[in-house]
Design brief:
By secondary structure, the protein is of the alpha/beta class. It has 3 domains: about 120 residues, Methylthiotransferase, N-terminal domain (Rossmann fold), CATH 3.40.50.12160; about 240 residues, pyruvate-formate lyase- activating enzyme (Alpha-Beta Horseshoe), CATH 3.80.30; about 60 residues, OB fold (Dihydrolipoamide Acetyltransferase, E2P). Helix content is about 30%, strand content about 25%. It has 12 helices and 20 strands. The strands form 6 sheets. The chain has a 5-stranded parallel beta sheet, sandwiched between helices. A 5-stranded mixed β-barrel has the order 16-17-18-20-19. It has a 3-stranded parallel beta sheet with strand order 6-9-12, sandwiched between helices. It starts with a strand and ends with a strand.
């Protein structure tokens, strides 16, 4: 087996995926070859997730598998913040580091497997760095960390306080991605709408233009590329209202991912959620008045400590009135280190599951009806995948991995990453079927 081969496993959310891309880019710059299997690798890196118990269990299991199959394992990521827990299960891992520890991970690889004196792969590294997403879309991380103290969350303890990237740096990365053929940028952070708060919206420059480190300014600038710009993890602060006209004008996608978490003000207060006093339903109504095509995605938690039947009914009423387009739901899971663990009124597991089933049944009926209303409409799609029997695409209202898909017959007309227009002919609760009406050479 030749030297300098590294295996890599990336677990968790899109933010962790971006961390993985940065580590891989540096390793390739240092002359390492990235390989897709345990047996040809001389060392394996596992980028872990530690947000909820199920994610922790998956990370621990994956580390164990890597040790069994390869034996030389470096651990990083969110679960790496708790080295004692990792070593309790797997004492023989080579090195453990927390999230964003790019240099530490690369240094650990160097120690285990010294880099070559000459890098044969340097000229092969794209300007955009190594990407783990398909060529036509990419995640654009604008900040790290979070300033909130939500009781159910341990992200601030793992990833620290908010640190915004300079807007000039973000725009340079975005520009390089667009030049490399990316057709869709997914803007992410722990709290995207807080972008720039920590630096007091400091002025920076891109292409000689002054820009404030602020979400509105960033969206305006990103919109100038003429490609799909999708916003994720946006808290409903008042200044988010400024973004809706940009969506109505076609500058950015009419899509907003807002983690609302609950519909009861009392539960939101116990959660210590930011902006919980905002009248969200009125805001949603105002957004739709400005941009009728806006797609709203959110996530919710049922069974938070102390959640009463009346508070759960408030959540169902909220969902019914809000008529959100894309919704995910989780039963509350006690995360080690979360302040919510100290709250009284733990909800029994069977009650959590029953509430989850009720919630999802209601939301499924809402989603089914909303998608049914799209039958006969012409919508813009981006092609994600081409199978022998069909083409798999997404609409402007669907983010990769988490939302629905659009299926078309494979007539060998299209290529991955191409944008086309199609007419919706059939729908179910989450997906659509369509026929192309205009072929667009974008």
């Amino acid at each position: 087996m030749s030297a300098n081969k590294v295996g890599f496993i990336s677990l968790g959310c899109p933010k962790a995926l971006v961390d993985s891309e940065r580590i891989l880019t540096q390793l390739q710059a240092d002359g390492y070859q990235i390989v897709p299997d345990y047996h040809s690798a001389q060392v394996v890196i596992v980028n872990t997730c530690g947000f909820i118990d199920a994610a922790k269990a998956e990370s621990i299991e994956t580390i164990g598998e890597a040790l069994e199959e390869n034996g030389q394992v470096i651990v990083t990521g969110c679960l790496g913040s708790d080295e004692a827990q990792i070593r309790q299960h797997h004492p023989n891992v080579l090195h453990v580091s927390g999230p964003q520890a790019y240099e530490e991970v690369v240094s650990a690889v160097h120690q285990q497997l010294p880099p070559p004196t000459k890098n044969p792969y340097l000229d092969l590294i794209p300007k955009t760095g190594v990407k783990l997403t398909p060529r036509h879309y990419a995640y654009l991380k604008v900040s790290e960390g979070c300033n909130h103290q939500c009781r159910f969350c341990i992200i601030p303890s793992m990833r620290g306080k908010l640190v915004s990237r300079p807007i000039g740096e973000v725009m340079q990365e975005a520009e390089a991605l667009i030049e490399a053929g990316v057709k869709e940028l997914l803007v992410i952070a722990q709290d995207t709408s807080a972008y720039g708060v920590d630096v007091k919206y400091r002025m920076d420059f891109w292409q000689g233009r002054p820009l404030k480190t602020r979400l509105f300014d960033l969206c305006q600038a990103l919109g100038s590329f003429g490609e799909w710009i999708r916003l994720h993890y946006v808290y409903p602060y008042p200044h988010v209202d400024e973004l809706i006209p940009l969506m109505a004008e076609g500058k950015i996608l009419p899509y907003l991912d807002i983690p609302l978490q609950h519909g009861s003000p009392a539960v939101l207060k116990r959660m210590r959620r930011p902006a919980y006093t905002e009248n969200t339903l009125k805001r949603i109504e105002a957004w739709r008045a400005i941009c009728p095509d806006i797609t709203l995605r959110s996530t919710f938690i049922v069974g938070f400590p102390g959640e009463t039947e009346d508070e759960f009914e408030e959540l169902l009423d909220f969902i019914q009135e809000a008529q959100l387009d894309r919704v995910g739901c989780f039963t509350y899971s006690a995360v080690e280190g979360a302040a919510a663990n100290e709250l009284p009124g733990a909800v029994p597991e069977e009650v959590k599951q029953h509430r989850y089933d009720q919630f999802m049944s209601l939301q499924q009926s809402i989603s089914e009806l909303k998608l049914e209303q799209k039958i006969g409409q012409s919508i813009e799609l981006i092609i994600d995948q081409i199978e022998p029997s069909c083409v798999i695409a997404r609409s402007r209202g669907d983010a990769p991995e988490i939302d629905g898909q659009v299926f078309l017959d494979n007539n060998n007309q299209f290529s991955v990453g191409e944008k086309i227009w199609a007419q919706v002919i059939r729908t179910d609760a989450y997906d659509m079927w369509a026929e192309p009406v205009i072929k667009n050479n974008t």
